[in-house]
Amino acid sequence: MVSKLSDNQRSLKLAPLLQDGGWKLQSERDAIHKSFSFANFNCAFAFMTAVALQAEKMDHHPEWFNVYNRVDITLSTHDCQGLSSRDIDLATHIDEAAGKYISQN
What we know:
A four-stranded antiparallel sheet has the order 1-2-4-3, covered by helices on one side. It contains three helices and four strands. A hairpin with a 2-residue loop joins strand 3 (about 65) and strand 4. It is of the alpha+beta class.
């Protein structure tokens, strides 16, 4: 079973995503959120496809919303009702994938 991030994990792994990565804690639940903008729909969809393939490999799927070139992503682990290491790993992959498609602007 997946467990929530400990205080130590939050300091070591979550804090850098919040401080430098642009992710934000949601106020209504233990989740992180980030918005991405791309040059066009094709770049946004390519990004979503890359994330979807990794998410499927990890068996950990984001909540997301897409309108044209914008993609909003929320991560939380339903099995533990909060943030887990799966969210940190997927957020890291998401940021790497975004860098590939945002640079196409």
